[in-house]
């Protein structure tokens, strides 16, 4: 597990949380002005931007992993983090150091003068600064919120990926999947290569067609097939890779990342694609809080940051594939502004009993408060303290059982911390 930030970086993080009156203030003008002032855009390296409702982090991880196996110097930025801020920026498999992050923040602070920046805008500029300073060959950017007005949309990426679209952040993005899809498709550029995940609203493809993008769509330009043995295969006009072992990353997201990486390489170096090297790399890819398995108290705990119905539906399918008939119990720590009813409804088929945990943060939903938002037939007990939740689970489950922890990044962080400290 990553260590928490040191005092110097913590001081900077407190500071960047205070320089803007709002936590979220969508728009490109402020961050674009500072990035231009610092000479960070246009970026001097190849770039991939990944948007969507769910699956962005896993897809970014797959893109970075495959390009690493093809000998590229790669920077990837994802958010939010689970344990330490440093997790947000990774260059050649190494998280950014406290010292480098502090150096970057100091440069940004000098360059911004009196321009107010949000926490995320500071973070985005830091990622751009780190990639520029370390001279990466490829930068991979996970969109934070939406797409059209997200800070990373100041980058004119070589490839844009949309993973999935479902209802989330409706107060910012719109109340329908079509409206949300239109916002997320705002990362597209004219004649850009675009990689589209399955079952997207039609507006996403229409936007790409309007911009005359070169569209690679799951199920049309590239395909995957899964076997009950836990293996899956990938096929496109670039390569065919058979019998890939299912790792921590879901094959749906891993295949999007694999295709985007191979597409970028085809446009750049056209490396020989060694099937064995790709398969080995795919097998080892993982991302904290995404189907992450930890064994403790002779039980398997699975951590996933699914926090909306779309993510929960995807998680439900993955759980059934991976764990079959094993009994599963759930630990839930959610947020006030999320669809708790929808999350529980999607996971109802796979979870035998739920335990509610209280999490930290202004947006947190108390375990007792969650009761009114959960379908009445679901067996849910609001326990509260993490330690008490773990005691109950250990006393009421068998060693062959699986315990899922989900609902928010905070829930994953706090339960993992309790298990591993």
Please name the defining characteristics of this protein.
38% helix; single chain; 421 residues; 14 helices; globular; 8-stranded mixed β-sheet; 2 domains; UDP-N-acetylmuramoyl-L-alanine:D-glutamate ligase
Describe it.
By secondary structure, the protein is an alpha/beta fold. The chain folds into 2 domains: 7-284, UDP-N-acetylmuramoyl-L-alanine:D-glutamate ligase, CATH 3.40.1190.10; 292-420, Mur ligase, C-terminal domain (Protein-Tyrosine Phosphatase, Chain A). 38% of the residues lie in helices and 19% in strands. The chain contains 14 helices and 17 strands. The strands form 3 sheets. An 8-stranded mixed sheet has the order 4-3-2-5-1-6-7-8, sandwiched between helices. It has a 6-stranded mixed sheet with strand order 12-13-17-14-15-16. The chain has a 3-stranded antiparallel sheet with strand order 9-10-11, covered by helices on one side.
Instruction: Write down the oligomeric state.
Output: single chain
Mean pLDDT over the residues: 94
Reported CATH architecture of the largest domain = 3-Layer(aba) Sandwich
Shape: globular
**So, the CATH homologous superfamily of the largest domain?**
Mur-like, catalytic domain
């Amino acid at each position: 597990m990553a260590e928490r930030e040191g005092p110097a970086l913590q001081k900077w993080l407190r500071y960047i949380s205070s320089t803007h009156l709002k936590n979220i203030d969508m728009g490109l003008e402020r961050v674009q002005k500072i990035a231009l002032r610092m000479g960070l855009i246009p970026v001097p390296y190849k770039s991939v931007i990944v948007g969507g409702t769910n699956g962005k982090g896993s897809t970014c991880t797959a893109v970075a992993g495959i390009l690493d196996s093809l000998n590229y110097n790669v920077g990837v930025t994802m958010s939010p983090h689970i344990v330490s801020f440093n997790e947000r920026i990774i260059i050649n498999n190494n998280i950014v150091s406290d010292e480098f992050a502090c150096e970057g923040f100091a440069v940004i602070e000098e360059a911004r003068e009196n321009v107010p920046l949000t926490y995320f805008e500071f973070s985005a500029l830091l990622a751009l600064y780190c990639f520029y300073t370390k001279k990466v060959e490829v930068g991979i950017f996970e969109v934070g919120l939406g797409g059209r007005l997200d800070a990373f949309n100041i980058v004119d990426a070589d490839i844009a990926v949309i993973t999935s679209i479902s209802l989330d952040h409706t107060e910012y993005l719109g109340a329908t999947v079509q409206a949300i899809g239109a916002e997320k498709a705002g990362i597209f550029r004219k004649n850009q290569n675009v990689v589209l995940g399955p079952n997207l609203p039609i507006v996403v493809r229409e936007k790409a067609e309007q911009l005359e993008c070169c569209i690679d769509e799951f199920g049309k330009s590239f395909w995957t097939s899964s076997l009950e043995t836990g293996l899956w295969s990938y096929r496109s006009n670039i390569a065919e890779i058979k019998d890939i072992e299912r790792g921590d990353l879901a094959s749906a997201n891993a295949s999007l990342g694999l295709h985007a990486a191979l597409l970028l390489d085809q446009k750049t170096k056209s490396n020989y694609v060694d099937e064995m090297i790709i398969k080995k790399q795919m097998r080892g890819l993982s991302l904290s809080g995404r189907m992450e398995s930890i064994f403790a108290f002779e039980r398997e705990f699975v951590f996933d940051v699914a926090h909306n119905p779309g993510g929960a539906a995807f998680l439900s399918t993955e759980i059934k594939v991976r764990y079959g008939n094993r009994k599963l119990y759930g630990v839930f720590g959610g947020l006030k502004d999320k669809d708790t009813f929808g999350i529980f409804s999607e996971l109802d088929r796979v979870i035998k009993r739920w335990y509610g945990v209280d999490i930290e943060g202004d947006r947190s939903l108390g375990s007792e408060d969650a009761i009114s938002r959960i379908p009445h037939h679901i067996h849910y007990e609001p326990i509260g303290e993490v330690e008490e939740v773990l005691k109950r689970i250990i006393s009421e489950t068998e060693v062959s059982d699986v315990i899922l922890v989900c609902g928010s990044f905070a829930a994953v962080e706090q339960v993992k911390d309790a298990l591993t400290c």
